[in-house]
């Protein structure tokens, strides 16, 4: 009997609602496919910060190291400045566990209304592979001359050969299991010093992977192509900040960010990988029970896949797709009238 130990961190806002929803679906999949999931919940959140002054305990990272995977809702709430909550929880989880590949699939599902005219599901099916531990999100920099007229803020974007090469590797490996095409998100036309280096490493990766077709676009026109030509893309490899932006733009083009999942992977499996929706805590709808659980459910399916439960993962995605295709089982972000519970019930029925 297979047993997987999962650390859950619901976090803040709708994080609680969608993680509970996801757990229900994953439990049903586990029963159906004959394995078990042992959940341990951690209350790390902005609430915890307000009570204790810390988002997570000192030894938090070591506590979750022991698990097979981490299932996270969302981090951030208006009561705590985002730079405090994020540097206190989400960012250390990604960095200290070296979850350097953030894999974010984008897909237009049958039945989901696409904001672009005349686009069919086969037109939008790509994956953003986002570098997740360096680049523009570096710790180097801060506030200068605080409180003076010369006050300023700066940040050094850090791109290492090791960090850049290994994210390229993840992108090309993934492309080989898909339609064998990788697009690089760049901005090497002059002013951004790091990007000519990014391009060199992309070229080096291209040379290592014969049989994979490539393209490269500056991030500005790439954003436009996501809207105008989403069918051009299979795997898109991007730096931390560019990947962050593209992984909200992509899902918006495919109907809703309420569907988009995210796998923070340590491909060598030296640490537990972490699975979460792309979206945040959604303070505007939190507590109302109307969040779309699809992103958390799909992220849960990616977790099952990572744990080797391939059949269960497929069944969860199929159940979710069936539900999305049914007009009467959609949440408000998709133009429907269902709440989170009703949407979960529909996925369970389909499963
Ligand atoms: P957000 O993703 O929380 O919300 C953006 C908009 O999308 C809101 O209108 C929200 O209602 C809607 N939305 C998001 N998820 C939805 C869902 N499942 N169903 C229906 N509608 C949904 O982004 P934001 O408002 O920029 O950020 C809010 C907080 O979340 C901030 O503190 C931010 O830092 C944090 N955040 C955390 C993560 C994360 O933990 N990975 C990701 C993004 C934002
Ligand atoms: C995401 C989020 C985070 C990021 C924020 C909350 C730090 O937007 O997971 O996409 O920028 O990585
Ligand atoms: Mn983001």
Automatic annotation (TrEMBL):
Superkingdom classification of source: Bacteria
**Which Gene3D superfamilies does this UniProt record tie to the protein?**
Isopropylmalate Dehydrogenase
Q: Which cofactor does it need?
A: Mn(2+); Mg(2+); K(+)
Q: Which UniProt keywords apply?
A: Manganese, Metal-binding, NAD, Oxidoreductase
According to UniProt, this protein's pathway is: Carbohydrate acid metabolism; tartrate degradation; 2-hydroxy-3-oxosuccinate from L-tartrate: step 1/1; Carbohydrate acid metabolism; tartrate degradation; 2-hydroxy-3-oxosuccinate from meso-tartrate: step 1/1; Carbohydrate acid metabolism; tartrate degradation; D-glycerate from L-tartrate: step 1/1
Q: What is its EC number?
A: 1.1.1.83, 1.1.1.93, 4.1.1.73
Q: What is the designated name of this protein?
A: D-malate dehydrogenase [decarboxylating]
């Amino acid at each position: 009997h297979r047993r997987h130990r999962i650390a859950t961190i619901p976090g803040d806002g709708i994080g609680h609602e969608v993680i509970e929803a996801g757990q229900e679906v994953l439990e049903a999949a586990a029963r159906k496919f004959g394995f078990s999931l042992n959940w341990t919940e951690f209350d790390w959140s902005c609430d915890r910060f307000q009570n204790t002054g810390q988002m997570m305990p000192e030894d938090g990272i070591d506590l979750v190291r022991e698990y097979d995977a981490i299932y996270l809702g969302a981090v951030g709430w208006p009561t705590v400045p985002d730079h405090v909550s994020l540097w206190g929880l989400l960012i250390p989880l990604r960095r200290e566990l070296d979850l350097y590949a953030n894999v974010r699939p984008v897909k237009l599902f049958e039945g989901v209304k696409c904001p672009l005219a005349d686009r069919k599901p086969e037109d939008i099916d790509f994956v953003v592979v986002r570098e997740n531990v360096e680049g523009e999100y570096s710790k180097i920099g801060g506030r200068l001359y605080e409180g003076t007229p010369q006050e300023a803020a700066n940040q050094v974007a850090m791109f290492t050969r090791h960090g850049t090469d290994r994210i390229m590797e993840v992108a090309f490996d993934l492309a080989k299991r898909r339609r064998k095409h990788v697009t690089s998100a760049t901005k090497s036309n002059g002013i951004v010093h790091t990007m000519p280096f990014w391009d060199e490493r992309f070229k080096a990766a291209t040379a290592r992977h014969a049989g994979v077709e490539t393209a490269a676009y500056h991030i500005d026109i790439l954003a436009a192509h996501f809207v105008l030509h989403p069918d051009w893309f299979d795997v898109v490899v991007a730096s931390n900040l560019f990947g962050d932006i593209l992984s909200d733009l992509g899902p918006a083009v495919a109907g809703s960010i309420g569907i988009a999942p995210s796998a923070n992977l340590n491909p060598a499996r030296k640490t537990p990988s972490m699975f979460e929706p792309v979206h945040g805590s959604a303070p505007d709808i939190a507590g109302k029970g109307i969040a779309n659980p699809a992103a958390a459910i799909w992220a849960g399916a990616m977790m099952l896949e990572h744990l080797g439960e391939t059949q269960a993962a497929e069944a969860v995605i199929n159940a979710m797709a069936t539900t999305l295709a049914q007009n009467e089982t959609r949440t408000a972000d998709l133009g429907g009238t269902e709440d989170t519970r009703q949407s979960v019930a529909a996925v369970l029925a389909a499963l």
